[in-house]
Each structure stands twice: as C-alpha cells, then as structure tokens.
Design a protein that fits this description.
This protein is α/β, with parallel strands linked by helices and 281 residues long. Helices cover 42% and strands 16% of the residues. It folds into two domains: 29-116, Leucine Dehydrogenase, chain A, domain 1 (Rossmann fold, 3-Layer(aba) Sandwich), CATH 3.40.50; 139-262, NAD(P)-binding Rossmann-like Domain (Rossmann fold). The strands form three sheets. It has a six-stranded parallel beta sheet with strand order 1-11-8-7-5-6, with helices on both faces. The protein is globular.
C-alpha cells in the first residue's frame, strides 16, 4: 500500500518557515504586501481568494483586496494593475482567474509587472523557466516539486510522465522536472497508447481534468503518483483525476484529494510573495 504524501503537513511546514522569515524581515522594518484582485463573484474564486487572504494573515503578509463588480471594463482593470505596479509598498499582484468573458486574460497577465507576478504566469517568467533563468514559477508545479523533495523522493534520472499540457500545470511541470534532471514525457488528449506510456513512469503526474480517470492499469508497481485534479463526484465528495484506492495499491507514494497538491499551491504563492519583496524592494 502506498505511503501518503501529506500536502497539508508539508504546506504547514513551508508556512511556518515563511512566518518566521516574515517576522524577521518585519523586525528590520520590511513589510510584505500582496494585492489580490477579483472581478465578479464566481463562488469558487471567492473561496480561493478567501483562502489566500487567510494564508497572508497567518504568515504576516499584508493583503489588499480589490473586489470589483462583474461589469468592470478591461481598461479599468488594467488601470488598477498599472497603479499597483507603481506602488512600492505592494510586492505581489494576483488577479484571480477566470475573468469575465469581456476581459482578455492574456492582456491582463501581461500587464502585471514580472517582478510582482507571484502567480508565475507572465510570459517573461515563463520564458525564464524555459531557459533556466531566475523568475517566478507557477505555484502548483512549484508545490509539486516541494512535495517530492520534502518526501525524499529521488527525481534525478527518473522517468516522469505528465498527463496534461496546460500553461498553468503541464508545461511548467515538465520544465521543472527537466531542471531536476528527470527524463520527461508529456501526454495529452491526442496521445496514443496512454496507458502503456504511463506504465513506464517512475513518477506519474496527473492533470487530465477528468474525475477518477486513471486506474491501476496506468500505474507501474512502485511508481510515485501525484494527482493534481479536483472535482465533486456524484455524492458531492471531493475526488481527483486518479482512482485513489486502485492507484494506492500499486504506487509507492501517492497524494490524496483533498489534502495533497491543493494546499501546496497557496503555500508557494506565499513563498513567491516573500521572494518578490526580498528581491525587488
């Protein structure tokens, strides 16, 4: 039976480390501030924004909340972002996605200063990741690297298969695993022979976006399974992209849903915010 990789516990460790660091910086008169923008009142976004504010409060980061109405224009949003870019007391800017359909998300992401892009979505930060330079990394993939390292799971030389090629998870995940000297295969909706490819993975990272899709037939005996998915099943219970019980019987390590990858995303957002202050203020 697989050993559980406890994202709650590992994210709590990271938050404690950050809390101590923020307290030390505060004692030197350096205060860290994150601006969080939400346009409209999408219920899931409201929950995520609330969790981010709570994490800021716990660690000692000041959070500024901008809750804008659904009908906010793109120009108004870009004007606010530019104001925050110029504000030296703000170190990180986060614009909660998705945005209303009349606002161009790519334009908004590109408008945030790369030095304050704590989500790691700006093209400059993505480009830095591609060529191995310093920059902010998308929080979920960065969190997965921490889960593996803090669970003492060897990455170097291992075959990592990633299911999913999104800009937020799949692509940056592949680049981070390459940085850690893994051999990487990226699979997606057009991949043929998916089960056979997955079966060759030492580390299988699943971000397929389909509830309970990946079962034991995809998993090599003793593989590490990281489940990025989060869904509600027919009983309104949270589940991932992986059939947990089946996968756990074959894997050596596995992340649960909830309590695996999810808590790490916010922990790494907090980490990026503290780094932004240290590097650029």
């Amino acid at each position: 039976m697989a050993e559980i990789i406890d994202g709650k516990q590992i994210s709590a460790q990271i938050k404690e480390e950050l809390k101590q660091e923020v307290a030390e910086l505060s004692a030197q008169g350096r205060e860290c501030c994150l601006a969080v923008i939400q346009v409209g009142n999408d219920p899931a976004s409201t929950v995520y924004v609330g969790n981010k504010k709570k994490a800021c409060a716990y660690i000692g980061i000041t959070s500024q909340a901008y809750e804008l109405p659904e009908e906010t224009t793109e120009e108004e949003l870009l004007s606010l972002i530019e104001k925050l870019n110029q504000d030296k007391t703000v170190h990180g800017i986060l614009c909660q996605l998705p945005l209303p359909v009349h606002i161009n998300e790519d334009r908004v992401i590109a408008a945030i200063s790369p030095k304050k892009d704590v989500d790691g979505f700006h093209p400059q930060n993505v480009g830095a990741l591609v060529i191995g330079q310093k920059g902010f990394v998308s929080c979920t993939p960065a969190g997965i690297i921490q889960l593996l390292k803090r669970s003492r799971i060897e990455i170097s030389g291992k075959h990592c298969v990633i299911i999913g090629r999104s800009n937020i998870v799949g692509k940056p995940m592949a680049l981070l695993m390459l940085r850690e000297n893994a051999t990487v295969t990226v699979c997606h909706s057009r991949t043929e022979g998916l089960a056979d490819i997955c079966k060759s993975a030492d580390i299988l990272i699943v971000a397929i976006g389909k509830p309970r899709y990946i079962g034991a037939e995809y998993i090599k005996e003793g593989a590490v399974v990281i489940d990025v998915g989060i869904h509600r099943d027919e009983n309104n219970k949270l589940c991932g992209d992986v059939k947990y019980e089946e996968a756990a019987s074959a894997a050596s390590f596995i992340t649960p849903v909830p309590g695996g990858v999810g808590p790490m995303t916010i922990a790494m957002l907090m980490h990026n915010c503290v780094e932004a202050m240290k590097l650029y203020s």
